[in-house]
Amino acid sequence: MKTATLLGFVLIVLGVLALAYQGFTYTTHKKVLDVGPIQATKTEHNTIPLPPIVGGLALIGGIVLVAAGSKEA
Questions:
Q1: For residue 17, what are the domain limits?
Q2: What's the DSSP call for residue 37?
Q3: What is the pTM of this model?
Q4: How many structural domains is the chain composed of?
Q5: From 29's CA, which of 3, 21, 47, 48 has a CA 20 to 30 Å away?
Q6: 23 forms bridges with which residues in the sheet?
């Protein structure tokens, strides 16, 4: 399998995932209170949104690479 075809398949998968989830979430823990042996922490959930155009461009780019890789073979 050629590199362009393999990269195309990877871009297609990433594009579909980006369109399906439209971002990802991560969790951070912050120390709020620290008095001797007593500690209090706060859990924050942060989201990084991905615009649908990013997923669409990755999907289209992957399709183009797969098509170009199959024509070379």
A1: 3-72
A2: T
A3: 0.70
A4: 1
A5: 21
A6: 49
